Amino acid sequence: MELAGDHLELLPHRPAAGCCSRPPPPLRSRRRELAHHQLHRLNVPDHQVDAMRVGLRSLTSTSVSTRVAYSHRCSNAYSTCCAPKPEVIPVETPSSDMLVDSFGRFHNYLRISLTERCNLRCQYCMPAEGVELTPKSELLSHDEIIRIANLFVISGVDKIRLTGGEPTVRKDLEDICLHLSGLKGLKTLAMTTNGIVLSKKLPRLKECGLNALNISLDTLIPAKFEFMTRRKGHSKVMESIDTAIQLGYDPVKVNCVIMRGTNDDEICDFVELTRHKPINVRFIEFMPFDGNVWNVKKLVPYAEILDKVRQHFKGVERLQDHPSDTAKNFKIDGHVGTISFITSMTEHFCAGCNRLRLLADGNFKVCLFGPSEVSLREPIHSGIDDAGLKEIISAAVKRKKAKHAGMFDIAKTANRPMIHIGG
């Protein structure tokens, strides 16, 4: 491991030429000694040294609560996930080495989960019995969210997306949006929501700087909505989509997870939403997470969805995608809106990945499908300064893999439920 930065460079022990009478100390101990020595040589106060130790420990472990809940995870969980080096597409110009991984990918997009709570119980998101939620006292506070977000923005992040759980259930959402939108350098403040209570909150959220919006909707049939989400509320989601259009959001992105035998018969009905309205329907391949009973038989591949669209609509044309786009984007002749495909399972887009994730409990995750996490909350509570926090973030980013595993390996790899990670 090497910590990025000028002050902490942990080098492997190399014995002097001809020296073989005594074996070198264990590498981990040697690194600890070097880090301790360099910190004190730089006159770093003892309390910050202690905070750095907490941060460095968290680079190879998760928070205490996560370790208990996920103690079955293995340190070699990525063993099947990466090629030696992918064809990486450079994106943007990095303004900080903190956000550049070992493959040259610059990460200017941060997704922040504000809560693990949700007012729906979608089948692809959580098990029927629900999930154990992190106690509120162990979640990031308002001020901690703003502090961490500010570190990312001054380092080059220009897009933040608020997720959950369901972000609109967090009482201080408006205040968080107001503070985040005021960060110098941030261009896009987005949110992914289920839309249940959005229509009433959206006018104020827009005033607070929310300028991009994704609304999750997996069926246009009210009875099926209740079956898929285990709750009522279809009409409220449709109202929220219309409200967003009225308020000038363009496009309003509608996220739709397609599952065979559940809603794959509605694909063309969703495309019809784009005919007269500035809606971007985003068809998402069904992805495996803990507790959502993923099965490859439920997966409807992107190619199959696109083929069905082309059979029913004329003039379906591919648009030029940005190198960091997660979606394959298409327009249809005569339609105001567009359609897109998120192909995580059948055609990954890791080479242009520019996304990082901050979970509600303060854990930092560099890949959606990787189980590795590093706590930022624990070092903060131990008194770490911003420079130390940036070292921890940088080291985690540098360890990001070339690409995530194939879908069958992902299905066998322990990971959190989607509601814990954030949509």
Helix tally equals 14
Overall strand count? 12
CATH superfamily of the domain at 97-357 and 402-421: Aldolase class I
> Major sheet: order of its strands?
7-8-9-6-5-4-3-2-1-10-11-12
CATH class of the domain at 97-357 and 402-421: Alpha Beta
Taking the sheet with the most strands, its summary is:
12 strands, mixed
Strand content: 5-15%
Return residue spans where pLDDT drops below 50 for at least 5 consecutive residues. 1-44, 58-91, 404-412
Q: Distance N terminus to C terminus?
A: 30 Å
The CATH architecture classification of the domain at 97-357 and 402-421 is Alpha-Beta Barrel
Pairing-aware structural class of the strands and helices?
alpha/beta
Specify the helix fraction band: 25-40%
**CATH topology value of the domain at 97-357 and 402-421:** TIM Barrel
Over the alpha carbons, how many angstroms does the gyration radius reach? 23 Å
What's the shape?
A: globular
Helix and strand run: HHHEHEHEHEHHEHEHEEEEEEHHHH
Summed over residues and divided by their number, the pLDDT gives a mean of: 79
Ordered list of secondary-structure elements with their pairings:
Elements: H1 27-41, H2 46-58, H3 64-69, E1 109-113, H4 142-154, E2 159-163, H5 173-181, E3 188-193, H6 198-207, E4 212-216, H7 222-229, H8 234-246, E5 252-258, H9 267-272, E6 279-285, H10 302-312, E7 316-318, E8 327-332, E9 338-342, E10 355-358, E11 363-365, E12 374-375, H11 377-381, H12 386-398, H13 407-412, H14 418-421
Parallel strand pairs: 1-2, 1-10, 2-3, 3-4, 4-5, 5-6, 6-9
Antiparallel strand pairs: 7-8, 8-9, 10-11, 11-12
Helix pairs in contact: 6-8
